[in-house]
Amino acid sequence: MSVHAYIGLGANLGEAAATVRAAMASLAELPDTRLLACSPCYRSAPVGYLDQPDFVNAVAGIATTLPPHAVLDALLAFEQRFGRERSFRNAPRTLDMDLLLYGDTVLHDARLTVPHPRMVERSFVLLPLHDIAPDLRLPDGRALATLVAACDQTGLQRIDE
User: Fold this and answer.
1) Boundaries of each 7,8-dihydro-6-hydroxymethylpterin-pyrophosphokinase domain copy (predicted)?
2) Rounded to whole angstroms, what are the CA distances from 90 to 104, 137, 149?
3) For the domain 3-158, what is the CATH code?
4) In which region does residue 79 sit, left (phi positive, over 0), alpha (psi from -120 to 50) or beta (all else)?
5) What phi and psi values does residue 117 have, to the nearest 5 degrees?
6) Most exposed: 43, 93, 139, 146, by fewest CB within 10 Å?
7) Considering the entire predicted model, what is its pTM?
8) Residue 89 appears among annotated catalytic residues
9) Is residue 98 flagged as an active site residue?
10) Options 34, 84, 104, 131, the catalytic residue
């Protein structure tokens, strides 16, 4: 049985918007997976390490029978394919892909935490997620629409339709 999962994407090096769009499309290549939806892209200020270009962010929805760790491994492989280097925490990047939600699964181990531990603090995740899943509830029962209404959207700019 397939599970609906949501992937957060971000980039701020090179042709960031084109990279994010290409990476979203590449999710259709995953085995036993269908790409269901892709949000518009948003421009956002960096978090953590501030001396870097703005980010382009988006969220994609998939239906998959792959287990969560297999999805994670595929995302890491996509990041490498798009030239990701991990020089330091919050460093500029050609592509970042995070497994935000995997159905109603709650998981925390050495490699993966689902739901993504900081997603509810990030308007650049919540707004594009809301664009493609406005009625979504998190595994803890919170409505995404409520989280979006409460998040600080300062500096977040939708850059495409």
Assistant:
1) 6-134
2) 28, 28, 26
3) 3.30.70.560
4) alpha
5) -65, -20
6) 146
7) 0.94
8) no
9) yes
10) 84
